[in-house]
Design brief:
The protein is of the alpha+beta class. It contains 16 helices and 22 strands.
């Protein structure tokens, strides 16, 4: 039940929806379809979202509600979706949990509308009608085909200009990109009796059709003045080879963050960047390697503010990746042709190592927090400063900890939201420090989410 309490303390989002009472048939079906088309999800009935409250359901009506949910899914959703429905008792109140797993036969859609108009996807905490591009991607997922592996018929492979990629490949691998190698790497395929490039080779090329087919295969970088988008100090657009873009964007960030001296080892000065630059480089590389190149009109954006760095990549986080578990060595490849090329060229070091690398680097920067969001059809990673005062790292962390401990002493039942209001820190910043205090055995949480309390075990 503790795990359930943790789930119900999360905001509604991509994999979670809460309802006080059973929604209309169409709304429920859209949610179920959106979950099946995406990462799966959990639908809880009997819980009010805003404000969050467990209202419960009439025990005598549970079986009838279960049957209605099952019938709606069976009658309105296609292909077949098999839910897992459970009755739960939380804080003495009855709720229903509907678990929907990621479907293996997308796209799922409303029968009465057909797949062109009845396919829905999950965007944040809402269900949206899928665009033709998204429906095409869902069909590719059904057959385990990636967009970059599809043939581009605009120009035969032998007429495509990719000399820069060819030279780079030869330099890094000591292997010439002849027709046999290109075919082995699935950069060219036969179609209509002619060898054509795949989308991957077009993206790696400097040919004119790259700009025509993929005008948004670029990175837009900006250094903004202040903490919100608006006036910018510097702006660059990197539109050349996608192999060079990660390093160019990384160098842009380096130019706009500071490096200071922390201490000395003998006569040698120890310099330290204000952000974990290895983690930032990895995040930029991931944005290029794992972006969804099938989406039209969206580019990668790297934004540097006074208090944070944001890296936004087109395409939602792959359903199999849990960004909250960064240490587990997860690996999910969206671009199945491009990713091995990046690995052979040394841009990717090891499969499944990216998130762990970012997590390990953040441990060296206790004053920097990490957040992630999915705005629309994009995925955003945010490195943010927990404090803006000109203080040492040790002073910043110590003051934050003391502030949280003081609030708990005054009110053991204080919520994270109330801590936000009183400290001015972000929710992620509060949670970051609470996690550290728990790990150090200084505080402990007792009781259910709504009526529980904090206890200081060792104030040191």
């Amino acid at each position: 039940m503790n795990k359930l309490s943790e789930i119900l303390n999360q905001p509604e989002g991509r994999r979670l929806e809460l309802k006080e009472m059973l929604p209309s048939n169409a709304d429920l079906a859209k949610t179920i379809i959106a979950f099946a088309n995406d990462a799966g999800g959990e639908f809880f009935l009997g819980i009010k979202d805003d404000p969050r409250e467990i209202v419960g359901l009439d025990e005598t009506k549970l079986i009838g509600i279960e049957e209605k949910i099952t019938n709606i899914i069976h009658d309105q959703c296609h292909p077949a979706i098999l839910p897992e429905i459970k009755f739960l008792n939380l804080e003495g109140k009855h709720i229903i949990k509907v678990q929907i797993f990621k479907g293996s036969n997308p796209p799922y859609y409303l029968k009465r509308k057909g797949f062109e108009e009845g396919t829905y996807i999950r965007v944040g905490s809402s269900n949206r009608q899928a665009s033709p591009e998204m429906i095409a991607e869902l069909k590719r997922q059904q057959h385990s085909i990636s967009f970059d592996s599809e043939i581009s018929y605009e120009k035969p492979a032998d007429a495509l200009e990719f000399k820069l990629f060819e030279a780079n490949f030869l330099e890094k691998t000591d292997e010439a990109l002849n027709a046999a190698v290109l075919k082995k790497l699935e950069l060219i395929k036969s179609g209509r009796g002619i060898s054509y490039p795949t989308n991957a080779l077009v993206l790696l090329s400097e040919d004119e059709i790259k700009k025509m087919l993929f005008p948004y295969a670029k990175i837009e970088c900006a250094r903004f003045k202040g903490v919100e988008p608006g006036n910018f100090i510097d702006q660059k657009s990197f539109e050349n080879s996608i192999l060079a873009q990660p390093e160019e964007a990384y160098q842009f960030v380096i130019r706009h963050i500071s490096q200071g001296t922390t201490d000395y080892t003998g006569v040698y000065r120890n310099d330290r960047w204000e952000y974990p630059i290895i983690a930032i480089r990895e995040a930029i590389r991931n944005a290029v390697i794992h972006r969804d190149y099938s989406l039209i009109g969206i580019d990668i954006k790297v934004a540097v503010f006074d208090d944070k760095i944001e890296i936004t990549s087109p395409g939602k986080l792959p359903p199999t990746v849990d960004f909250s578990d960064m240490q587990s060595g997860q690996s999910s490849i969206r671009n199945k042709i491009l990713a091995p090329i990046f690995k052979r060229l040394g841009i990717i070091e090891q499969w499944g190592n990216g998130l762990k690398l970012i997590a390990d680097e953040l441990k060296k920067y206790p004053e920097i927090g990490l957040d992630w969001k999915e705005p629309g059809m994009s995925f955003r990673v945010i490195f943010f400063k927990l404090h803006q005062e000109s203080k040492t790292v040790e002073e910043t962390v110590e003051e934050t900890v003391e502030e949280i401990l003081s609030l708990i002493k005054l009110n053991p039942k204080i919520t994270v939201k109330e801590m936000q209001v009183k400290t001015g820190l972000s929710r992620r910043g509060i949670e970051w420090n609470i996690a550290k205090l728990k790990q150090q055995g200084i505080i402990e949480r007792f009781g259910p989410t709504k009526s529980g309390y904090w206890k200081i075990i060792d104030s040191q």
